[in-house]
Amino acid sequence: MTEQDLLQQILAANKRFLAGNPNPPGTEGKPFAVVACIDSRLTGLLEPALGLPRHRAVVIRTAGNQITERCRDAVRSIATALYVKKAEEIVIVAHTDCDLARFSAAQAAENFRSAGIRREAFGNEDLRSWFGAFSSIRDNLLGSIAYLRNSGIVPRTMKIHGLLLDSERGGIEVVVDGNTTPDVPLPQAPAPEAEKPVAAEAGEPDEAAPAPRAAQGPPPPLPREQAPRKGPIIVGQPQAPAAPAPEPVGSLLEAALILRDFFYRERQSQQVRQVASSLKTIWNKEKNPARIFAEIEKTARSYQTKYPRIPGALDYLDQAIRNGSADRIGFAEILKRIFD
Questions:
Q1: Do the Cβ atoms of 126 and 207 come closer than 8 Å?
Q2: Strand 57-62 relative to strand 32-37: parallel, antiparallel, unpaired?
Q3: Which of 31, 102, 177, 315 could hold 87 in an S-S bridge, CB 3.0 to 4.6 Å?
Q4: CA 6, CA 12: separation in Å to the nearest integer?
Q5: How far apart are the C-alpha atoms of 95 and 170, rounded to whole Å?
Q6: pLDDT in tens, 35-62
């Protein structure tokens, strides 16, 4: 098997598995890494469903198949797979009905308190953030791929595939084909079924899940109203050309990366450093996306001539906050991507 056809080999093995004739590829061939969730339903299912051969598939499992700054051990394991086990492709496998997509802060608190663990053990962070809960299985998968792409440990040419595994039947869907979409930013993927609301626990912060989103993900940001021109218009006098429309942004991830690039490039500016420090303090105290966005916008807009993609990123983020697709948890992830 050559590295070019790894994904097709996995799809063929899955087809045989669903037909009741599992037959994984041979053990000879180039190694590859697989990142999957710790969910017990995947035990005994993941390997035959994907046709993972022994001595080639390096399997790494993390809660929610997440690869983030918080999951440094996952990054270390992937680096080991690449540079010790010599894996040449990466397959990240999300699965349906993931517990972290329907996480209940109240239930988690009840469980650890029943075990004699105090709330203080988890710090001041809200429990959804601490456990890494997310509102969209697909967006979480895309976020893991994007984080890995930007981690600095993965060659830009390496193929990273994203799959969605049916945790009951074992069928797989290709969300990201690393053969054709090798780089970030990744496009916004359609959201799965509506998320269940999270019940808040007395004494816990309000960690309710965001409102359900349409199947096609958040709509593109609405164009902002242009202020009417002041003063009379003289017939025959040429009018000033209208400002060009902002370049459209396709996802929250892309918006975050644009703003991250701006803050990184302007990090020597005392004003920008002060704003970044102030934003972190405000977020820790209030966790109010609208307040944080207002502060980001106030600073970033003044640089939009130098960074022409900033207006599109700000417009998308503003609309995402308004329509609820950038909930507190999602916005916390955006801030991490901007300031990490």
A1: yes
A2: parallel
A3: 31
A4: 10
A5: 9
A6: 999 999 999 999 999 999 888 999 999 9
Q: Which of 34-43, 73-82, 290-299 has the lowest mean pLDDT?
A: 290-299
What pLDDT, on the 0 to 100 scale, is given for residue 94?
95
How far apart (Å, rounded) are the C-alpha atoms in residues 332 and 282?
12
* Helices within the chain (DSSP H only): 6-18, 46-50, 72-83, 105-114, 127-131, 137-150, 252-265, 270-286, 289-300, 310-323, 328-339
Q: Measure CA of the first residue to CA of the last residue in the chain; give whole Å.
A: 39
Quick check: 67 and 33 in contact, CB under 8 A?
A: no
Angle at 293 between CA 287 and CA 299, to 5 degrees: 130
Of 166, 173, 216, 210, nearest to 191 by C-alpha is 216
Name beta bridge partners: 34: 59, 91
* C-beta atoms surrounding 277 within 10 Å: 11
Furthest C-alpha separation in the chain: 80
Dihedral sign, CA of 82, 86, 88, 89?
A: negative
Task: State how far the Cα of 140 lies from the Cα of 66, in Å rounded to an integer.
Answer: 7
Question: Looking at the predicted structure, is the pLDDT value of residue 138 above 60?
Answer: yes
- What digits encode the pLDDT tens for the residues 152-192? 899 988 999 999 999 999 999 999 999 886 554 443 433 33
Query: What is the DSSP secondary-structure string of 209-259?
Result: PPPP--TT-SPPPPPPPPPPPPSPPPTTPPPPPPPPPPPP---HHHHHHHH
Distance from C-alpha of 164 to C-alpha of 159, rounded to nearest angstrom? 17
Question: Between these two residues, 285 and 11, which has the higher pLDDT value?
Answer: 11
- In the predicted model, is pLDDT for residue 4 greater than 50? no
pLDDT given at position 206:
40
Tokens of 170: 């074992």
